[in-house]
Amino acid sequence: ASDNESWVDSDSQYSRGTATMAEWKKFTARKGNEKAKMVCIDLTPNGTTQAKESSNILNVGGFSDAVFDVIAKFVQSGSDAKHWTSVIEGVTI
């Protein structure tokens, strides 16, 4: 649960906030955790996130059964923009 300030991380310009990114950096710096990945799912998406998206961090807005496929693809390939572009282009509307 959040007090609607979960978007404020410790790398921000704000003096207070969550320590999500600081703890993630500590975790991935440990031997054996260098390839770890984090998935943040925001059930009610808006314009903010707890962790900045990167090659090892995926932010998902909303939730459905499709989330599990997105997470699986992220774990397999990372967040390479070319990969995700091809996934999006492969969706039949």
Question: How do the helices and strands follow one another from N- to C-terminus?
Answer: HEEHH
Query: Quick one: how many beta strands?
Result: 2
Largest sheet: 2 strands, parallel
What percent of the residues sit in helical stretches (DSSP H or I)?
A: 25-40%
Provide structural commentary:
- The protein has a two-stranded parallel sheet with strand order 1-2.
- Helices cover 33% and strands 11% of the residues.
- The chain is an alpha+beta fold and 93 residues long.
- The chain has three helices and two strands.
Secondary-structure map with pairings?
Blueprint (H helix, E strand, L loop, with lengths): L19 H10 L8 E5 L14 E5 L4 H12 L3 H9 L4
Parallel strand pairs: 1-2
Give short descriptive properties of this protein.
93 residues, alpha+beta, two-stranded parallel ribbon, 3 helices, 33% helix
Task: Please outline what is shown here.
The protein has 93 residues and is of the alpha+beta class. Helix content is 33%, strand content 11%.
